[in-house]
Amino acid sequence: MNQFFKTLKNIWSIKDLRERILFTLGLLFIFVLGTNVVLPGVDPNVLKEYLDSGGGGGLLGLINAFTGGAFNKAAIFALGIMPYISASIIIQLLGFAVPYFQRLQKHEGEAGRKKLNQITRLLTVAICLVQGGGYLTYLKSVPGAISSQVPMGVFWLSNIIILTSGTIFAMWLGEKITDKGVGNGVSLLITVGIVISLPVAFLAEFQFRLEGSGLFLFIIEIALLFLVVLATVLLVQGVRKIPIQFAKRMVGRGQSMVPTSGARDYIPVKVNAAGVMPIIFAQALMFLPATIGQYFAADNPDFATSGFMREIMDPFSVTSSIFAFFLVVLFTYVYTALLVNPQQYAEYLKRQNAFIPGIKPGKNTADFIDAVTTRITLPGSIFLGLITILPAFAVMMGVNQAFALFFGGTSLLIIVGVILDTLQQIESHLLMRKYDGLVKSGRLKGRSGMQGIGAPM
Predict the structure, then answer these.
(1) Helix, strand, coil % in the chain, rounded to nearest 5
(2) Could you give phi then psi for residue 271, rounded to 5 degrees?
(3) N or C: which terminus of the chain carries fewer CB neighbours within 10 A?
(4) Contact between residue 63 and residue 71 where contact means Cβ atoms under 8 Å apart
(5) How far apart are CA 456 and CA 351, in angstroms?
(6) Which residues pair with 248 in a beta bridge?
(7) Is the dihedral of CA 87, 89, 91, 97 positive or negative?
(8) What does CATH list as the number for 13-196?
């Protein structure tokens, strides 16, 4: 504990790092304030009564968790930063399939990156306009939520502009945090939006257990949550190290080894190379039944409330969990195949005059790396699928839905990944000034400790 407080003192003593942290906290505070500014023409009290009566559960509650509660409050940040994330995902996928975007990503350097950023921003605006219209339609479906004194044309036009501007402003905040703060700004905004609801959910679960089954079960829940967090850290940090060896070369009259990175020469292949993307894709696909149900509900009200539709639209049901598990496993393989290119590894090794011991260069090396990636992706995808459906198991065990979201799924993976990345940046500042980091070794293993040729790939 003394070492921890000493590290905090070291952080505060570094002027540049202190200013970056305060700048980051200030912009995050502005984002939190924006999640409480209600759209004009909306009655927040009526909306709150509707949500308290059970109208905002299921998938809508999941969306609300990623916007820091702004979705349920009809705030100016109700769409959050997710339209920008969606646009970034689309552009990234186009980079794998469309030659024009491939050229911008790989061959045009800084100019290509700036053009991709511009296209992403324009696509973000388009997504905001579509999602903003859908969100206002949802508000209109809530009886009495929209003031009758406001003309509908003015309400729609003004609030779509406000919602779009809110997302663009949140995107700007994220970019400023990345440039002048600490950590990835967009990721931190998502994390803050998720963490905002944690204290309320924690207190609600504590009060429920205290009044019902007792404090002992609450302590068990916290212990299980701690174990799940540890397991998630292992999944995020886990790598399979493929050893490599550099060939000898003649220098003068003797022989010397090609300079390497030291004793740790390996290709780090991550157990979860796809990150949180498979869960995001799976959840986006799971949103489709809800959309389809809304279209059919107008002609057939019983369709949306039928047994199968009700199960598939409930993220905590058994049916929904089974579908989500298999979708996550499938998307993990697909996204890993897009990200990890064994042929590039083989070519890079050949250019560096390096090889994997016992494996011939060229096609054999690519096949070996592909086989290793496939083998470690199987347990990684299953583990990721289990983390995805852990909130459903928590609800089945009696945990309230708001607190159960932190037992797994996208929320937990994002929080763990972003915190580890932010700590790594803080420790980099400390290590540059010869201070110990936030962990005893002074380095977060598996992230800043990655050396060898895997890092630049």
Answers:
(1) 70, 5, 25
(2) -65, -40
(3) N
(4) yes
(5) 14
(6) 257
(7) negative
(8) 1.10.3370.10
Question: Could you report the per-residue pLDDT of 17-70, keeping only the tens digit for each?
Answer: 888 899 999 999 999 998 888 888 888 888 878 776 765 555 666 677 777 778
Task: Indicate the SS3 state at residue 357.
Answer: coil
Orientation angle between helical segments 215-237 and 409-432, nearest 10 degrees: 60
For 243, residues 6+ apart whose C-beta sits below 8 A from its C-beta are: 265, 266, 356, 357
How far is it, in rounded angstroms, from Cα 125 to Cα 123?
5
Reduced to 3 states (helix: H, G, I; strand: E, B; else coil), residue 181 is coil
Each domain of the chain, given as residue ranges in start order, spans: 13-196, 198-249+261-457
Level-2 CATH architecture, domain 198-249+261-457:
Orthogonal Bundle (1.10)
363-396 and 409-432 helices, crossing angle to 10°? 120
Total residues belonging to the chain: 457
Per-residue tokens: 182: 């600490």
**Full DSSP string of 349-363:** HHHTTEE-TTS-TTH
Output the pLDDT for position 401. Answer: 78
| Rg (alpha carbons) of the chain, rounded to whole number | 25
Orientation of helix 185-195 relative to helix 152-180, angle to 10°:
120
